[in-house]
Amino acid sequence: MKVIVVGSSHGGYEAVREVLADQPDAEIQWYEKGDFLSFLSCGMQLYLEGVVKNVNDVRYATPAGMRAQGVSVFTETEISSVDAKKHSVHVIDHAHNKERDEQYDKLILSPGATPATLPVPGNDLKNIYAMRGRDWAIKLKQRTVDPDIQNVVVVGAGYIGIEAAEAFAKAGKHVTVVDMLPRMLAKYLDEELTDILTKEMEEHDIKAAPGQGIKSFSGQNDTVTEVVTDQATYPADLVIVATGIKPNTKWLANVLDLDDHGMINVDDHQKTSADDIYAVGDATLVKFAPTDGTKSPIALATNARRQGRIAGKNAVGIEAKTPFVSGSSALSVFKYNFASTGIKEGTASQYGVKTKSTLVTDTFRPPFVPEENGNAKVWFKLTYDPQTTRILGAQVLSTQDATQNINTISLAIQVKLTLEDLAYTDFFFQPGFDRPWNIMNLAAQQALRDLGKV
């Protein structure tokens, strides 16, 4: 069997690994259009802040390591078209300026996505950057130590934008974050928690400018100098646009069924509309567990890796279905750590779900443990169906790392646990680690009181 895998980030990497594990004698060809295999953009902040010293370490695999396992690896090599009827792809070898066609038995596509651009005047000025991919990582790193860069404007207050803002604030730059939504990180946390993080950012010279739309970029000598919104003008020596992504699928429009946004339609096995072709990663939708399978664009590495494994299994004849996901994610913002999963108050309306939430605060460890010994305040917000008490989502925030609680809530969502289940779930207690009642227990118990179900 000959399997061709296109794309080398999370989904493509996992597909290759799965095929290797399940059918070691398969012929695997792995294609990457860029000159670097499996760069991980989710590790970019660690590189920009110097935690990871070498940009080449921010990866899953090397060509030499994969070739040693029998995989034929091709970098600087583009798959420009697919002929589904002939089971062939057209290959452009940019390194050697050659072209050829390759046959396949199974094709796994992980085409990924490209950073969204803003269709406003001045978007072609110099010093307007993106925050995705190794090439941008290297350019951004150079700008963190550039003395001519003093004012940085980040457009977009999601995870990527906040990571960029923190990296440049730590590099001594004045940062402004502009977003159309009314709050920073509004897609991930509700207002009680974003207020805390916004204050923390402001204390580190990051100015929040929410609820504003970009009107234009202006500049001198073809280089950006200002960002103009519908409310204000901000000086900018560097602009980082982090307003989302768009699927890299135009080249597949006449081959596969795509939705109105260019996302590849796949079934529960990651199969596309064409025989023997599978698709994974940011160019596909996932099924959202809190709503029992609503198709949603949730671009997370965990989702892509899960899809890659499932596609690899099905490609070699092992039937497997991709499970529903809760959309779990986490981030640090200076001294705070937060995580969230499932539905929040701020996102319930987009899913048409009626919810109720309960916010509790407590200490990370028993009160007798001094703060300097690892005790700190914890905010935990639990979201649920007020009629059935089914758990639908949660958020947690603390200067301690309480984020692993969210993994438990993700599982609770997927197996449809209720507040009654969670209220007295058995979690361990030891004063050096946590409290007698886990924060999740406390939240569920309080939620039952709020509903009059004690």
Automatic annotation (TrEMBL):
Tell me any Pfam family this protein matches.
Pyr_redox_dim
Give all residue intervals belonging to the FAD/NAD(P)-binding domain: 1-308
Instruction: List residues of the Pyridine nucleotide-disulphide oxidoreductase dimerisation domain.
Output: 332-434
Single GO MF descriptor: peroxidase activity
Q: Which cofactor does it need?
A: FAD
- Highest taxon listed in the record's lineage: Bacteria
Return the InterPro entries for the record.
Answer: FAD-bd_OxRdtase, FAD/NAD-bd_sf, FAD/NAD-binding_dom, FAD/NAD-linked_Rdtase_dimer_sf, Pyr_nucl-diS_OxRdtase_dimer
Query: Keyword set for this entry?
Result: FAD, Flavoprotein, Oxidation, Oxidoreductase, Peroxidase, Redox-active center
UniProt key word rRNA processing: no
Question: Is Flavoprotein tagged as a keyword?
Answer: yes
The record's similarity note reads: Belongs to the class-III pyridine nucleotide-disulfide oxidoreductase family.
Q: What is this protein called?
A: NADH peroxidase
